[in-house]
Predict the 3D structure of the following.
Amino acid sequence: FAGAPLTRVLAAGTALAYVLFETSHLHADLSLDYDRLTADGELYRLFTANLTFGTVAELLVGMLVMVPLMRRYERELGTAKFGTLVVFVNVVATFLELCAASSFPALTDVRHSGPYPALGAVLYLFHVYAPRLHPKFFGLMGFDFSEKSLTYIFALQAVFSGGVGTLQPVLCGAIASW
């Protein structure tokens, strides 16, 4: 975490929020539930849905993917710009998710809680700005893969851990960071 204080705070906050939510059984009460948001006016869900992951497996895989990428881009952008990016992506991605929920009502009940928009943003930055250093890092069945493919493999596990419920916020985060 050297040179990346915001990443340290976000990682520790995500882990601590998971422990707090899990011990007090608050995951369902703080996730982004569109029906309760619109019908009951529970606006706090807009802010609490991106705090932590829903399961231990999502937490571990998500942190293994997010922390190195967030640390890298915080060092490159600086803490202030990276913090602005994270806040901007979370706000815009949540707005895009609400637009998608109003356009496609079938997607309203599958949203998983977690910092998936931030994951989508750093994956987009990784895809665009990280060069392939070793285009033939390893081969499999006649296909050559670069070292970036290892990050993509772990990221796919995190992105598809909840199906459409995790894919939608990741895509909204990537679009917001575009």
